[in-house]
């Protein structure tokens, strides 16, 4: 009996704590030392080609299920039939708004491996009943979004007047870390910041000379700083993998200054588009003593890779469902040890409206294989081919100049859609 107990304690000691902090609508180029000093000081690995979906719900579904959107049916928020019906040339399929109950979440997988689990913040994969994160593998779960002040939580929780959401969520996170310090834990902290409405604490707005957006970023950065300080104070830093990222690109790059909250340059486009400004996000992983400090990697990694990565690090059992990503566990320890990857894929079979009657996007798919990226627009079959190494801003469409490469990537993308039975617009 004693031998079994000792074996269990040794096994638990080998499992890293996992903290995943997710910002909302934070652009790839939004973090600077001035607005995000804590993130700037955080030593670890930066993945410079981290991919997401074009907006929040599908990315969150990918993170929690380890599956691309065609497998879950979650492609966007609410409906794919956005904008004016008379402007849509195709009829989009139905969009799922709740993560299917037959999917094992990463929280369920880690909980089965002996982890205490908690989630505080924006879930967006089914807010009530069986879909609430408290029923999807999280021992503790409080969801909230929509406002940064005077917010409502599920389940209903007493919230002091005038408290700022990012601060309140961080309070819950710190409490969870403190009481879970003696066992492996998984903390998922998906902030609502920096999503609209533009609301920030008065003192931070004043510090940044009226820039509410900078003040919102600073609040998310303060959250990271408090979490790191808690880990340090409890002696948990070397036992903890901390990951910070965003769910999609920033709200900007649309050519309409009134709708641009940020500037995603040098990337093209922004949230809601499959250009890099919409699907490339910051990614930083810190694990003192394990992840080399100050390291970077340009390996094309993405949301679906988180699930298999955490499974491997935690020694957790793989779920019955297919997983679409690759484990980055070796890459975290050695940035030169990139795993094999055939390609990354995106599928958005509907419409997202933009400003002044323009579309942010019409139905489109995309594939990235190495440095090459192809977009296929379904209304007219238009192809756009870019070499991201030479043209990060996607300004030179090479589809006409390299028709054979464009054709091969288009066929590869179509084969992937077919293999996943991806819903298509009619």
Explained architecture:
With 426 residues, the protein is α/β, with parallel strands linked by helices. Helices cover 27% and strands 17% of the residues. The protein has twelve helices and 16 strands. The strands form four sheets. It has an eight-stranded mixed sheet with strand order 5-4-6-1-7-8-2-9, sandwiched between helices. Strands 11-14-15-16 form a four-stranded antiparallel sheet, covered by helices on one side. A two-stranded parallel ribbon has the order 3-10. Helix 6 runs parallel beside helix 8. The protein is globular and about 60 Å long.
Write the layout of secondary structure elements.
Blueprint: H1 2-14, E1 17-23, H2 37-41, E2 45-47, E3 50-51, H3 56-65, H4 69-72, H5 106-112, E4 116-121, E5 140-143, H6 165-179, E6 185-190, H7 202-207, H8 212-233, E7 240-246, H9 276-279, E8 283-286, E9 295-297, E10 301-302, H10 306-314, H11 329-333, E11 344-348, E12 352-353, E13 359-361, E14 364-369, E15 372-377, E16 383-387, H12 403-419
Parallel strand pairs: 1-6, 1-7, 2-9, 3-10, 4-5, 4-6
Antiparallel strand pairs: 2-8, 7-8, 11-14, 12-13, 14-15, 15-16
Helix pairs in contact: 6-8
In short:
The protein is of the alpha/beta class and 426 residues long. The chain is built from twelve helices and 16 strands.
**What's the helix count?**
12
Low-pLDDT stretches = 1-10
**Helix share of residues?**
25-40%
Q: Tell me, what's the shape?
A: globular
Q: Which series of helices and strands comes N to C?
A: HEHEEHHHEEHEHHEHEEEHHEEEEEEH
Labels describing this entry:
single chain, 426 residues, alpha/beta, 4-stranded antiparallel sheet, 12 helices, globular, disordered N terminus
């Amino acid at each position: 009996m004693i031998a079994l107990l000792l074996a269990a304690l040794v096994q638990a000691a080998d499992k890293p704590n996992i903290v995943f902090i997710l910002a909302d609508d934070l652009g790839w180029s939004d973090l600077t030392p001035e607005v995000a000093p804590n993130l700037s000081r955080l030593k670890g690995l930066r993945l410079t080609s981290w991919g997401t979906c074009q907006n929040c719900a599908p990315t969150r579904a990918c993170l929690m299920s380890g599956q691309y959107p065609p497998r879950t049916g979650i492609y966007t928020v609410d409906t794919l039939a956005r904008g004016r019906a008379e402007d849509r040339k195709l009829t989009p399929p139905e969009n799922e708004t709740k993560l299917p109950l037959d999917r094992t979440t990463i929280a369920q997988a880690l909980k089965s491996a002996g982890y205490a689990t908690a989630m505080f913040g924006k879930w967006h994969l089914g807010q009530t009943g069986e879909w609430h994160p408290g029923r999807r593998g999280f021992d503790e779960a409080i969801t909230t979004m929509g406002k940064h002040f005077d917010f409502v939580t599920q389940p209903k929780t007493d919230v002091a007047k005038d408290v700022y959401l990012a601060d309140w969520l961080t309070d819950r996170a710190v409490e969870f870390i403190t009481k879970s310090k003696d066992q492996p834990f998984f903390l998922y902290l998906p902030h609502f910041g920096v999503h609209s409405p533009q609301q920030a604490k008065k003192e931070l707005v004043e510090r940044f000379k009226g820039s509410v957006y900078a003040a919102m970023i600073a609040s998310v950065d303060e959250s990271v700083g408090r979490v790191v300080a808690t880990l340090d104070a409890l002696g948990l830093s070397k036992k903890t993998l901390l990951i910070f990222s965003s769910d999609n690109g920033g709200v900007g790059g649309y050519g309409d200054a009134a709708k641009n909250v940020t500037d995603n340059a040098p990337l093209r486009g922004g949230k809601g588009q499959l250009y890099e400004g919409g699907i490339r996000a910051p990614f930083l992983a810190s694990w003192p003593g394990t992840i080399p400090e100050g390291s970077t990697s340009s390996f094309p990694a993405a949301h679906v890779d988180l699930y298999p990565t955490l499974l491997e690090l935690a020694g957790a059992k793989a779920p019955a469902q297919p997983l679409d990503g690759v484990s980055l566990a070796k890459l975290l320890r050695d940035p030169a040890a990139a795993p094999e990857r055939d390609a990354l894929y995106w599928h958005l079979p509907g419409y997202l409206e933009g400003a002044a009657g323009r579309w942010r996007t019409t139905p489109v798919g995309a594939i990235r294989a190495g440095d090459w990226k192809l977009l296929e627009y379904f209304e007219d079959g238009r192809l756009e081919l870019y070499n991201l190494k030479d043209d990060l801003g996607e300004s030179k469409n090479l589809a006409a100049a390299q028709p054979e490469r464009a054709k091969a990537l288009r066929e590869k993308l179509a084969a992937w859609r077919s293999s996943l039975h991806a819903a298509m617009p009619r």
